[in-house]
Amino acid sequence: MTEPNTLGGLIGGALIGLAAVLLLALNGRIAGISGILGGIITSTGWGDRFWRCAFIFGLLAGAGLYALTCGGLPLELQARGPTLLVAGLLVGVGTRLGSGCTSGHGVCGLARRSPRSLLATMIFMAAAALTVFLTRHIF
């Protein structure tokens, strides 16, 4: 196990918060990634689709820039192929059932003091802890 990158986490968290505030202040939109990505498919106007594509591109470009400057991404994938596909589909279904994802509820919803987002975030975190426990200690 590697040492945690505390400074990187603080900077990343501040940038996520800044992006969420700017999107809300400038566009009146919540920075929930699942809603932004889903809106690319369901949007009818080019302007609405453009900002959504730009936001997603920025997420990917940020990871690419990090990989270029730091010599790769700090990822340790324990699963491959079909397992990742099923996991991704389950995450997608979960975001639809929860009416949003951790970025929408956990970052933006909690900042707006939404009781629904508090409950959703608590459920997300409990499910994540249970998943880690099961995959590391049971399976």
Descriptive notes:
With 139 residues, the chain is mainly alpha-helical. It folds into two domains: 1-76, no CATH class; 77-139, no CATH class. Helices cover 78% and strands 0% of the residues. It has six helices and no strands. The chain has helices spanning 6-27, 33-42, 46-70, 81-97, 102-111, 115-138. α2 (33-42) crosses α3 (46-70) and α5 packs across α6. The chain is globular. The two termini are 20 Å apart. 14% of the residues are buried. The model has no long low-confidence stretch (mean pLDDT 88).
Any descriptors?
139 residues; globular; mainly alpha; single chain
Concise summary:
The protein contains 6 helices and no strands.
Low-pLDDT runs: none
Count of folded domains: 2
Shape: globular
Residue-averaged pLDDT: 88
Secondary structure category? mainly alpha
Individual helix count: 6
